[in-house]
Each structure stands twice: as structure tokens, then as C-alpha cells.
Amino acid sequence: MSGSGELDFAFSRIRNNSGNGLYINNHTGSRTIQNSLFTENATGVRVSNQPSIVGLDHCGIFNNGTGVLNSGSAIVDARSCWWGTPSGPEHPTLNPAGTGNPVSDNVQFEPWLTEETEVHPWIVLSELVLTLALTESNQALIQWPDLYPDAQLQYSFDLVEWQNVETAPAI
Predict the structure, then answer these.
(1) Exposed/middle/buried for 96, CB within 10 Å: 0-12, 13-18, 19+?
(2) 127-140 average pLDDT score
(3) DSSP-derived 3-state class of residue 163
(4) Which end of the chain has the least Cβ crowding within 10 Å, N or C?
(5) Is the whole-model pTM more than 0.70?
(6) Whether 109 contacts 95, CB under 8 Å
(7) In angstroms, rounded to a whole number, what is the distance separating the alpha carbons of residues 107 and 70?
(8) For 93-113, what is each residue's pLDDT tens digit?
């Protein structure tokens, strides 16, 4: 991300990149990066040439080669993030006992979150019960009462088209 536009980055999961999960370079606009997961990237978040502080709020940054790499002089504020371990990120002088992802200089990380349960930008559902009701007006009403009791999704479709769909024989 570079330029002067607004960056509003929240509730996202960036993973499995051979390079940077998120790269912010010479961006002068407003930045909101929160409640997001950066994992299994060569570098979780890379920052360079920034005129002001870049903030990461309540993010999960772990299982990357490097957690946060800041090659500029402006501070990256990564306090209140989860680093994959209660000991926090690894930094050679500021937190040599940290066993989480390494961070570069000019990254503020203390205090860090000591439990993964303190930040949940991602939801993993191992068991989700959905209910599906077909209405007389060709509406499908989908609800997930165990997760969100008052939420529902409605979808319209044409039953005639569905009846004309051919199916493959069972193997």
C-alpha cells in the first residue's frame, strides 16, 4: 500500500505468502489496521518510508519468518498484539527471551497480549448448525441460531431452473 488514500484494514486474514503479508510503503493517508491475522508469510507486516506512526491494534502476528519488519525511522506501534506465545516477539535487545516472531528495530510491542483468547479477528467454526427453510415465495431462509440467534440470510431463486439441472450418476 502506498499513496495518500485511506487504508482501513480490519478483520482480515493474510496468510501463506512467500513475500510480505502486508507492505506499507510511503503511505501518507490515514491508516487503521486492526483485528487482523498475519500468519505463514515470509514477513507478516513490512513498513518502510513512513512519515508517521503505523499502528497495528489487536492483531495476531505469528508463524511468519519475520513478524514486523520496519526499515524506516517512524515507529510501528504493535502493542496489544498476539505473537503466538505468551513470551511475546523476539527482539535481540528489547526481548531476547521472546519466542514469537522476530521484530526489527523501531517496532513498539510492549505490552503484548499474553493469551490468544484476547484477540479474535478470525473465527474458526468446527461445528456450525445451519437451518434452511424454503418459503412459498421461492425464498430460502438460512439461520445459524447457535452463533447469532437473531441473524438470518434470505436468498431468492427460481425452482424451475433448479429442476432442469442434470446431476451426475453416483459412483
Answers:
(1) exposed
(2) 56
(3) helix
(4) C
(5) no
(6) yes
(7) 7
(8) 999 999 999 999 999 999 999
At 3 the pLDDT is 55
Query: What contacts 4, CB < 8 A, 6 or more positions away?
Result: 27, 28, 29
The H or E element that residue 161 is part of is helix 159-163
Q: Say if CB 35 and CB 59 are below 8 A apart.
A: yes
Contacts of residue 170, defined as CB under 8 A and 6 or more positions apart, other chains included, come to: none
Report which residue type is found at 84: G
The residue with greater pLDDT, 159 or 86, is 86
pLDDT digits (tens, 9 = 90+) for 15-35: 898 999 999 888 777 677 888
Q: What pLDDT score does 127 carry?
A: 47
3-class DSSP assignment, residue 22: strand
Strands 139-143 and 131-134: antiparallel
> What value does the CA radius of gyration of the chain take, rounded to a whole number of Å?
22
